[in-house]
């Protein structure tokens, strides 16, 4: 299957689809009042399995039993901490890029209001 190749283009954030604001359920909230908002771009050619967009999160922490996707993201501004089950902590700050694998378990802590740009690979069973 071949796809037409488009020229590179800037992503105009004003044209992104607003996905809404989501509050974290009490069952997984550990601290603060974490909430997030996201905007998604059009699907990439080839199907629904790769998505990208912008995300804004408020301070707080949530427990994750299994991260739903493989995600590659860059923090534009702000700071998050990813606490692994072994207790080690990865700080991701403005300008840094991180890869989280599907099924990662731990604590996602948004330390301060954070903006990130992301790409996720959605598993076929969630397409």
From TrEMBL:
User: Boundaries of each (S)-ureidoglycine aminohydrolase cupin domain copy?
Assistant: 50-118
Question: Which InterPro entries does the protein's record reference?
Answer: RmlC-like_jellyroll, RmlC_Cupin_sf, UGlyAH_Cupin_dom
| Protein name, entry field | Cupin
User: Organism source for this protein?
Assistant: Ciceribacter naphthalenivorans
The taxonomic lineage of its organism, from the top, reads: Bacteria, Pseudomonadati, Pseudomonadota, Alphaproteobacteria, Hyphomicrobiales
């Amino acid at each position: 299957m071949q796809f037409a190749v488009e020229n590179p283009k800037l992503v105009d954030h004003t044209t992104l689809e607003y996905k809404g604001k989501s509050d974290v359920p009490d069952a997984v909230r550990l601290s603060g009042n974490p909430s997030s908002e996201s905007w998604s771009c059009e699907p990439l050619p080839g199907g629904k399995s790769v998505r990208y967009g912008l995300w804004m999160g408020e301070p707080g922490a949530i427990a994750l039993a299994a991260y739903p996707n493989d995600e590659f993201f860059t923090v534009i501004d702000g700071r998050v901490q990813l606490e692994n089950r072994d207790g080690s902590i990865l700080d991701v700050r403005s300008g840094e890029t991180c890869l989280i694998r599907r099924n990662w378990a731990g604590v996602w802590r948004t330390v301060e209001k954070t903006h990130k740009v992301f790409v996720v690979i959605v598993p076929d069973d969630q397409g």
